[in-house]
Specification:
Elements: E1 3-14, E2 17-27, E3 31-35, H1 42-49, E4 57-62, E5 65-66, H2 71-74, E6 78-82, H3 93-100, H4 109-118, H5 132-145, E7 150-154, H6 162-175, E8 182-187, H7 190-196, E9 199-204, E10 207-213, H8 214-220, E11 221-226, H9 231-235, E12 241-245, E13 248-254, H10 255-258, E14 267-269, H11 273-283
Parallel strand pairs: 3-8, 3-9, 6-7, 7-8
Antiparallel strand pairs: 1-2, 1-4, 4-5, 9-10, 11-13, 11-14, 12-13
Helix pairs in contact: 4-5, 5-6
Amino acid sequence: METIMELNHVCKTFKGFALKDVSFSLKKGFIMGFIGANGAGKSTTIRCILDLIHPNSGEIFLFGEKANGNLQALKQRIGFVFDQDVFFSALTVAGNARVIAPFYKNWDQAAFRNYCERFDLPLDKKVKDLSKGTKMKLALAVALSHHAELIIMDEPTSGLDPIFRKELLDSLLDVIQDENKAIFFSTHLTADLEKVADYITFIHNGEIMLSEETDQLLERYVLIRGPKASMTAVQAITPIAMKQTAFGFESFAESVSARTLHAADLALERPTLEDIMYYLGKTGRGQVK
C-alpha cells in the first residue's frame, strides 16, 4: 500500500511546550487514530502537517511529496473535519456549497448532493440552525465532495451525543471502503477508535509513545486484578504499573509476561485504549525509538 502521509523527526518548540522528534506514517486504505490527552500535541501536530505552523526541523511528506512549500496544491487532495464551526452560519447548506465549490478543482456537485442525502443533511436549512453533529456531517460531505484522498479529523466527535457519534463513525467505515483514501482521526475519546481505527498513534507531552496496529496493541497488554494476597505473585512478573484498590489491586502488564500467572483468584482482562493511554502515559514506558 502507498504511504499517503509521513512525518520524519518533526520538532516544534514553543514557550513551555515542544513537539519532540515526531515520526509516524499512514498508508492508503486505513484509518489511524491519533490519541493523547488535551495539550499532548495532537492539534500542534496537525497544524504542522497543514503548514499552519512551521516545524523547527524534520520533514513531512504528503502523497509522496515534500509538503513544505507545496501545500497549496496538495490541499486539493486533503479534506478537513475540525471541531469548530468553519461554515457561513447565515447561509444554507446548499449556499455554503456554492461558496466552497470554486476553491476545489475537483468539486463534484452531484457527489455533494448524494452525500447530503446519505447523511440526511437538509440543503435548504441554514447552518446556524444545524446541530453540532449535523455540522460534522456537513464537513465530512464537503471533504468527500472534492474527492479528498486524505481526510484529517481533529476531535470530530467531541461533544456529540452517542447516536450522532455512531452515525459519524459508521460513515467513516463506509468511506474507507475506498482503498485510495485514508483517514487521520485525532481524538481523546478512545472508545470511538476501538470501533474504527486500523492503527493507533499515541502522543504524550509532545512525544510519540507508540504507533502500531490497533489489534496488536490491544493484545500486547493485560489488566490483572486480584486480592492483596496475590500481589507478590504479580510483582514477580515486573508489571508496568500496579496500584492498590479498595478490593485488592489492579496491575497493567505485558501479555507475554502474564502468561506465567496461574493463580485462580486473578482476573486477566484485555485493556481498553483508555487504559493503555493512562498507564503508558503515567509511566512513560511506550516510547517508539
